[in-house]
Amino acid sequence: MKLTYNVKDKPKFGQLIVFAFQQLLAILAATIAVPSIIGNGMSQSAALFGAGVGTIVYLLFTKFKSPVFLGSSFAFLGSMFAAFGGALSTAAGFAGILIGAIFAGLVYVVIAIVVKFAGVNWINKLMPPVVIGPTVAIIGLSLAGNAVGDALTFAKSTCEACGSVTAFVMNPKGWAGFVCALVTLFTVMICSVYGKKMAKLIPFVIGILAGYAVGTVFTLIGMKTGNEALQVIDWSAFSHMQWVPDFTFLKAAQGIKDIDASYVAMIAVAYVPVAFVVFAEHIADHKNLSSIIEQDLLEEPGLHRTLLGDGIGSMVGAIFGGCPNTTYGESVGCVAITGNASVITIFATAIMAIIASFLAPFVTFLSTIPSCVMGGVCITLYGFIAVSGLKMIQKVDLDDNRNLFVVSVILIAGIGGMAITIGKVTLTEVACALILGIVTNIVLSKKKA
Question: SS in 3 state form for the chain?
Answer without folding.
Answer: CCCCECCCCCCCHHHHHHHHHHHHHHHHHHHHHHHHHHCCCCCHHHHHHHHHHHHHHHHHHCCCCCCCCEEECHHHHHHHHHHHHCCCCHHHHHHHHHHHHHHHHHHHHHHHHHHHHHCCHHHHHHCCHHHHHHHHHHHHHCCHHHHHHHHCHHHEEECCCCCCEEEECCCHHHHHHHHHHHHHHHHHHHHHHHCCCHHHHCHHHHHHHHHHHHHHHHHHHHHHHCCHHHCCCCCHHHHHCCCCCCCHHHHHHHHHHHCCHHHHHHHHHHHHHHHHHHHHHHHHHHHHHHHHHCCCCHHHHHHHHHHHHHHHHHHHHHHHHCCCEEECHHHHHHHHHHCECCHHHHHHHHHHHHHHCCCHHHHHHHHCCCHHHHHHHHHHHHHHHHHHHHHCCCCCCCCCHHHHHHHHHHHHHHHCCCCEEECCEEECHHHHHHHHHHHHHHHHCCCCC
